[in-house]
Structure prediction request, 248 residues.
Amino acid sequence: MKAVRSAVILGMVVLAVMWSFARKSTPVPAVVLFSFDEFLSRSEQDKLIIYCADHIRSKGLVGLQAVKDVFASLADISARRASSKAFTVHVTSAQPRLFVNNTYVLAQGPVLLPCSVYAQTTLEQLPKMTVAHDEFRRTTLPRDMESFIVNNGSDMLHQFDVTWLSPTSIIAYNRDARDFAILCGQETVPNREGIATCRSIYTQLKPKLQQCVCADVRFDNQIIAFYEKKDLLQQEPCSDMIIRKGIR
Prediction:
């Protein structure tokens, strides 16, 4: 994902609420200012404002952190008094990491959230991944995808169209042309040097072949390269091994 400024404030939302002061006098209007970072969608912001306003009416600022238990889209929420009758509530959203199946967002936590939680401008800047639908049944999927990103997955996501079939079967097709693919697992993601080595194998083999050159990096200290006539996503790879080349 391109560098996204997490400290930019989109704007202040002003809401009048009825506030009971310590003297338990008749409730008087108090102004609550809400500020958000740039990640959340307007609809998610509206839901948060309504929920927080109800909380403040009934409990004041006590226990405001409990809002995070209701909204997984939040990383933090804080409040401070701006004046004798005004408060500022700042909402920090869970930072988005990955756009999954054009439907979900892998966010800080890690947690999978509906993409409607985030603004369209946020979604457009996220790297994308396709995940097999059966994988969504696994409760550890968010943590495994986070591990993939940490293990050099960001480099791969910016250069390839990545499909997650399982933690040990991830297929990354060259974004420019589907004549080159890398096979890896969440723990065997090639770093930049590894990707460059795979590309050099592709360069050596491609002039001699008309099929897709595939580099399997799921083995210790070696790359197994082979070619396929059909899309790897449509069949089990079962082609001839062409070359082995050492990799760190």
Summary: Residues 141-159 form the longest helix (19 residues). The longest strand covers residues 74-83.
